[in-house]
Design a protein that fits this description.
The protein has 383 residues and is of the alpha/beta class. The chain is 39% helix and 18% strand. It has a 7-stranded parallel β-sheet with strand order 3-2-1-4-5-6-11, with helices on both faces. Strands 8-7-9-10 form a 4-stranded mixed β-sheet.
Length: 383
């Protein structure tokens, strides 16, 4: 495997630009991230939800938003300006934003290339497909004179590969292409991506930093706070059940049982890790097309108190999935870009704060926050 990373350990000049290559670049999350980055950089909106824009990350040398350049892969054909207008109609983006950012959205759309379809629909040999995807990323970096490019998977969830399946699923082909192009990689989805066993040796040999998987935006974020609370207060959780109602592309994708199982595994992990065991209960994901990009997550927790008194906690989380995810995507792109510049490799310690199924570290949000601050200190020391 040929890896191009001439700038990995170099200090970037102030004028250097960083690429963000989004897999699923015309989806709701990617469109919101691209529009949001431009809007914040122009001072049109505050950086609400962007942890890297808080004081805890000052002096870390993160690439500034105005120096990010966007491109990506997608099998969809709807141009980004049009996609942004659709998100306005859905209540995701504010009125007037697509018109104000038409040039920025058009510039990013010009660098979106056709992605790889489902493996069984792609007539190319696997290595040929990966080489083509990697060439797209490398051409983007050269055309824009980028010091580095971070690849972020925000495509729809795919099911786990069948046991004994030799072919790489689409998400893993994109991950392999990122390695081949010498790019840091983030898997913001529960899809296999870089976790495929066939890519383990290549990931280690690449010397590149990576992070994943499955962005933590709503229900699991709340679970990562509440589950440790029960454990620390010595309250016995008897059962924990939940339901997710969502629409849009994610809802349609998660209607597939395999994709839903991949999604639920990360949601269950935080409970098992925090409570010491997985309590009784079921977790359902229901596709409700009328909800569009909005989702409702309901949890029912049955627990025992002193002298066996039985109690219940119920929570309802209602939010816009893209608006919750987009600032995290921008955070991760900036953090991985800085980690790459600092010469870090392998799974980056301290990023579990962002994921349902992190590469390392604790599952409870307070511990993950402390680990993230530790990463900020390491980046600051090397800035």
């Amino acid at each position: 495997m040929t890896v191009e990373r001439p700038e990995q350990h170099a200090s970037a000049p102030d004028s250097a630009r960083t690429g963000v290559w989004l897999v699923g670049a015309r989806g709701s999350v990617a469109t919101t991230a691209i529009a949001g980055s431009a809007a914040v950089a122009a001072g049109m909106h505050p950086p609400t939800g962007m942890v890297t824009e808080t004081g805890a990350f000052s002096g870390c040398g993160l690439p500034p938003l105005e120096r990010l350049v966007f491109g990506g892969h997608d099998i969809a054909s709807c141009p980004l300006p049009k996609r942004a207008e659709q998100l306005v109609a859905a209540g995701v983006l504010p009125h007037g934003l697509p018109a104000a950012l038409h040039a920025e959205l058009g510039a990013a759309d010009a660098y979106i290339r056709p992605g790889t379809p489902a493996t069984f629909e792609d007539p190319r040999e696997e290595d040929e497909a990966i080489a083509s995807l990697a060439a797209d990323i490398s051409a983007f970096s050269r055309a824009n004179g980028l010091v580095r490019t971070v690849v972020v998977n925000v495509a729809s969830t795919e099911g786990a590969p069948a046991a004994g399946e030799a072919a790489l699923p689409p998400s893993s082909r994109y991950a392999a292409a990122a390695l081949r192009a010498g790019c840091p990689y983030v898997n913001f989805t529960p899809s296999t991506g870089l976790h495929h066993p066939a890519l383990a040796d290549e990931a280690r040999a690449s010397g590149l930093p990576y992070a994943g998987r499955d962005g933590k935006t709503g229900q699991t974020l709340l679970r990562s706070v509440l589950a440790p609370m029960f454990a620390q207060r010595a309250l016995s959780v008897r059962a924990w059940s939940g339901t997710n109602l969502l629409g849009g592309g994610d809802g349609a994708a998660l209607a597939d049982p395999g994709a839903a199982a991949a999604k639920n595994s990360g949601k269950e992990r935080v409970l098992a890790d925090s409570l010491g065991q997985l309590p009784e209960g079921q977790l359902h994901i229901d596709d409700v097309p009328a909800l569009g990009d909005w989702k409702t997550a309901w949890d029912h927790v049955a627990f025992d108190g002193f002298l066996g008194s039985r109690m219940v906690l119920q929570t309802i989380w209602q939010g816009c999935d893209s608006a919750l995810a987009a600032p995290l995507v921008l955070d991760l792109a900036r953090l991985l870009g800085r980690a790459h510049a600092a010469g870090m490799s392998g799974p980056v310690d301290g990023l579990g704060f962002y994921f349902k199924d992190p590469d390392s570290g604790p599952s409870a949000l307070p511990g993950q926050w402390r680990a993230l601050l530790g990463l900020a200190d390491r980046l600051r020391a090397g800035a």
